[in-house]
Structures are given as C-alpha cells and as structure tokens.
Amino acid sequence: MRSPSFLERPGPRNRPLSTPPSSPGDAVPTEVIATPPSGTATPTPLPTPAGPPRVRALADREVFGFLPYWKLGQPNTNLDLRQLTTIAYFGVEAHQDGHLIRLSKAGAVPPGWVGFESQPFADMLAAAHAAHVRVVLTVQRFAWTGGQSRRTVKLLKKPTARSSLVRDIVGVVKDRGIDGINLDWEPVPAAARDDFTTVVRELRAGLDGAHEGLQLTFDLTTSIGAFDLPALTADDGADAALVMGYDYRIATARRAGSTAPLDTGNAAFGLRATVAEALTLIAPERIMLGLPWYRRAWSTAGADAHALTQDPATFGASQTVEYSAALEQAQLTGRLYDETEAAAWSVYQAVSCPACPVTWRQLWYDDVDSFRTKVGLAFDQGLGGIGIWALGEDGAHPELWSALRLALGTTTDSKAPSGTATLDTSLDPALAGRKEQGLPTVEGVARVTLKADDGSAGSGPAFVRVSNLADLTGGQLLSGRTYPSLPSLDVSLTDPAIGGSAEAGKRTVYVQWRDVAGNWSEVVSLQVWNKRAPAASPSASASPEPIPSVTPPPY
C-alpha cells in the first residue's frame, strides 16, 4: 500500500505562511535581504484623534478571503466575487531593517513578490475591482523561532526602521492601486507588544495620508491577550482585527480533533470561547473570525473520535489536507460528524510512510455543515465579518460557497434534491449479465452509479447516504453511512453499520441525497442477488466500524 501523500498532501501551515503547499512540514520562512527604497526615513508622527469617529473601509459584513501566491491564477482557484468583499493577497515579507523583501540573499525574487508583480495578479485585481471587491496586500512577519523573534523585536523597537517600512508599504499601495494592507505578524513578541500597536498607528497615518478610505486590518492568534486590542482598533488604528480561528490542534496534538472546534469539553478552548474573550475587549464590529479551508489528519491508537495520537516517528506524521483532498478521502471512507466541535471527520486504516505499520488515521475537516455553523456563530455575535484561509483550497468543489450564501442569507433553498441509483457491473465482469431470480448477481459488494439533481436554483448536492434497511428517522435513512456527494460508490452488503450481513440471497440497497441547505431527497432503491458474501474483516474498535473497501484508497 502506497503512502497517503496523494490525499494527505502537505498543505500550507495552519496559520498563513509564506511556504507553499509543497514545502516539507511546518517550515517557517528564512530571513532574506531587502532592497530598500531610496531616501532617508523619518519617523511618522502619530495622529491625534479628533471630531467624529473615522469611517472604516469595511463592508457591513466582511467576507475576507486570503489568496496565497501559490493559488493565484490556478485553474481550480474559484473566487466567488459575488460573496467576497475583500481579497488579501498573501503575501510579502517585512525585513528587520524596515523594508519589504524583494530579493533573497542569493538574488532570487521571493515567490510572493513574483506573484504580486505577475499578470495573474493584475487580472485578479481588475476582476475584483470590477465586482467592487477590495484587494489588499498581506505583509507578513513571523516570530515562531528565537531568531525570528529577535529580528521582529529589532524592527518594532527601532523608530527609523518602522518609519522606513511604513513608507515602503504606502508607496507600494499607491503604485499598485490596491485598497490597503493586512498585517500578519505572528506571534507578536511580548517585549514588543506596545511597539506593534505603534507601527499599526504609524501605518494608519501613512495610509490616510496617501488616500482616503484605504483598509487596514491585522491578524491575531487565538492568544488574545498578546495584543492590545482596544488600542489597535481605535480610530487611529486598524479597521478591524481578524482572529485566526484555527490551529487549536496542531501536528503534536495529544488527541485527534478539529483544528477549529466550535466547543470542547474545556470551556476556555474553542471558537466560541475565543470570540467571547475578544468581545470583552472590543466592539463586535471590530472583529472578523477567520475560518479554515484546510484540514488535518493524525495517526491514532484507535477508531473512536478523539483517539490518542500515535508516535509520528513510528506511525507517520500528522499532515495538513486541503478541503478538496479531504472530500476525496471521505468519499472513500465515509463522513462522520461531531456536533459539539461542529466538525466532520473520517477514520480509516492506512500505511502513512514506506516503513510505517498499518495504523488508524483520523482526518478532521470542516464541510458545509460545520462551516455554516461557524459562520453563524460570527454573525450571531454581531461580528464584523468572517475570513477564509485559504481561497483555492476548495478546488473544483462549489459547496462551501453555497454554504456561505445560505449563511449570509443571500439565498434560500427549501426544495429537496432528487437522484437515481443504478448498478454498475464493471466491478466483476465475470458476473456481468448473470441473474438469479431475475436480479443481477453480485458477490458481497454492489457498485452503484449515482446521479443527483438539485435544480439550477438549488443549493447543490452535498451528501449521499446508503443503507440495506429502509427505516427512516428525521427524513433520513436510520442505519446507513453518509458520504460527500459522489458519482459512484461501492456498497458492502456485509457492512453491519448499514444493516448488512454475510447472508446470500436477495438484497436491497437504499439511497438518498441531501443538499447543502439540509433537504433530504426521497429514498430510491435497487435490488441485487448476493451470490456469495465474504466475511467482514474484524474491527479494532466497535465505534465507528471501518468501512469495508473493495479497492484500497489511493494512499
């Protein structure tokens, strides 16, 4: 069995980084040399707030999407400009001496800067402006290592370096005709907490001096207390703070679970708790809640939800997984849902590296239900908007945008989808055309071709559910397995979770579909004759049972 790199390919780090998805592990960008602008920098005086509150360059409800340079101009990068209000191009890096980095030590142009000066960026900017969507530049500065932290403190503590950086940023904004700046400085070292506030104020003054109505936002980690939020979002500061509502569980987590849990057993841990803490400090309209379109998988000691994670050196490392790849995995191994954390997940057995033994893998991800729930949290609390990390990670799948439209109330859908299910005899050509008592013959597994239709005005198919039993609860098949909507499915007739057994004879497969809005279709069915049913493999855990697989996932 091959490595799971096809589906669990490394993605960008949980927090926005300058490393592309192909970079190994959680590497952080290295310090490189800037090309400084000409002229002598002088400190920018801080503005003195007076008169009525400043009009902030924000939509009534922001939908703030990060577009990484490695997704810029890609065929599957879907930018729904009808829903977005701001696109933050990610990104370019700030040098410790106070300049945007244009050249590396070796004289190479950093890929973020290449993208910023590219034709795909110019095309995106033109299309966004035509749709009345702002485009801002993310300026990043990381301090996750000791060396990075020291360099960040040096930059923030030195007035001339801060002023030089502000002048460089403002010049780029004016030259490129973009609509503002997003600062992704994480974490802000405790020794420079107030200095970060100062640089935000200085940048606010610089942008105001360049053009009226330029947007300024900054990203903050879930360690809310590391930032002086009241000062940072005052009238002489940023328009809003974007809480990066992810990275609650990282590669080294003790137990598997959502990277962005709504709630957990710990009242201080999760999105709801983080938002509540931020609301004790600043008004809700000054807060945006960033949500992830990436996922994470771990090797675990069992199949039960939140099982202990395994030693990565022995069983394979945890990996980030883009939404599109997470769906591919769940289409193979089924979709489960954790109501408390508001997270979808899938469990399966895999070999996670060439020398690794077989282990359980748990993949936790957000889908249409969890995304709608978390967007709902943001707007129920009156927040100024939501953020998305990162645009393009949905690939060719449109359903997250549909979920967003439903959450924003820009569309509704009360009509159930419909569908058809037919037997595909390609699974076992030797049995093709053979019948018992007038029914097509299969051996333990029925390969079913699926076709769903939600109409041109519908929210779109999201899930398909299969069972060997016709019983319903709440309009859906009671004993069954749910998968993200897909065109074909191998249904194991021995799977006890769907009412299957090893008995031979006439069997019925029941199928129904659900759209993004939550409407279940009528149940359709097909009958087969089970000639011989192989015994099901024993499970290492009673809950949930693994999904029998005819062909292994493409690990």
Fold topology:
Layout lengths: L61 E7 L17 E8 L17 H6 L2 H12 L3 E9 L3 H12 L1 H18 L3 E7 L6 H18 L4 E6 L8 H4 L7 E5 L26 H9 L7 E6 L1 E7 L11 H4 L3 E4 H11 L2 E3 L4 E9 L6 E8 L2 H13 L4 E5 L9 H10 L9 E6 L11 E2 L2 E4 L2 E9 L7 E7 L4 E2 L2 E2 L3 E4 L3 E5 L12 E11 L8 E7 L25
Parallel strand pairs: 1-2, 1-13, 2-3, 3-4, 4-5, 5-6, 6-7, 7-13, 16-24
Antiparallel strand pairs: 8-9, 8-12, 10-11, 11-12, 14-17, 15-16, 17-22, 18-21, 18-23, 19-20, 23-24
Helix pairs in contact: 4-5, 10-11
Overview of this protein structure:
The protein is an alpha/beta fold and 555 residues long. 21% of the residues lie in helices and 26% in strands. The protein is built from eleven helices and 24 strands. It has helices spanning 111-116, 119-130, 146-157, 159-176, 193-210, 229-232, 271-279, 312-315, 323-333, 368-380, 399-408, and strands at residues 62-68, 86-93, 134-142, 180-186, 215-220, 240-244, 287-292, 294-300, 319-322, 336-338, 343-351, 358-365, 385-389, 418-423, 435-436, 439-442, 445-453, 461-467, 472-473, 476-477, 481-484, 488-492, 505-515, 524-530. Strands 1-2-3-4-5-6-7-13 form an eight-stranded parallel barrel, surrounded by five helices. Helix 5 links the parallel strand 4 (180-186) and strand 5 (215-220). The chain is elongated, with a radius of gyration of 26 Å.
Overall spatial form: elongated
Please describe the biggest sheet, giving its number of strands, its sense, and whether it closes into a barrel: 8 strands, parallel, barrel
Low-confidence stretches: 1-48, 536-544, 546-555
Structural class: alpha/beta
What's the Cα radius of gyration?
26 Å
Mean pLDDT: 88
Percentage of residues assigned to helices: 10-25%
Distance between the termini: 7 Å
Strand order of the largest sheet: 1-2-3-4-5-6-7-13
Strand content: 25-35%
Number of strands: 24
Q: Count every helix, treating DSSP H or I runs of 4 or more residues as helices.
A: 11
